[in-house]
Amino acid sequence: MKRVVLLKGGWSGEREVSLVSAAACALALRDAGYDVVEFDVTRDLRDLLDILDPRPDVVFNALHGRYGEDGRIQGLLDILAVPYTHSGALASALAMNKEIAKRLFADAGIPCPPGKVISRNALLAGEAMERPYVLKPVEEGSSLGVHIVLEGQNAPPFDAARWAFGDEVMVERYIHGREITVAVMGDRSLGVTELRTNEGFYDYEAKYTEGRTNHLVPAPIHPDAYEQAMDFAVRAHRALGCRGVTRADFRYDDRASEPGEMFLLEINTQPGMTPLSLVPEQAAHAGISFPELVSWMVENASCED
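Above: the chain sequence. Below: its structure as tokens.
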């Protein structure tokens, strides 16, 4: 029986999401026959080193957000030569930095919304670009800190007092249209989902609050757009050197004509595994049960030693 240490929690803004993902994964892994040891990661590396001694067969990384999916924990596991799930250190770091990732996506021929990174002070001095546009942290996930600035809004576009994500801000042109997401497992896309929120945009609350968002699987979009989203997701996965399971998020604008325009927003190297999460849902649509999905992740774990 393989011994799997499942890392969860951490101290990022996505801690609660990680704990829910970890609970679901631990249950599924035990159902699949693995010996699972759960560990809530803290800033004390001695505790982490203790749980990894003796060395487990695999580390299942269920952390989300900074320090968990940005390459840092992956680098430590590489040094220890412990196989782990999801992408390696470099791919994880590249995916977390939206500015660098967009450059690599462009090199791979994948359209992304036009944008730039500017300082917080420059944003306070005036409009970052013609409205509508989107403000987001350069390095965060789960839509934390994302703010849409629309035409006709009277409120200031940026509230520095509530910004807790560093001195730089990613500014992107707002893409009208539909929210689309695609899961990639190894070297293939599992399917395409359209996300329709009952109110507002697909923010943190919409992602993790039951009843806030409808998941349409398969997405009811033009067949050519469906295939393009599947292709772009795999190309983005490869462009960053990802492995395991990832999820690519898109905006699809088909207001003027079909098949419309598809824009990649970002790739998530450690997508959520909560009861509301998209990857397990797409896997089920492709005929892969949740225990089969997490087992595949364990059996395909590796490290860069």
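The chain has a mean pLDDT of 90.
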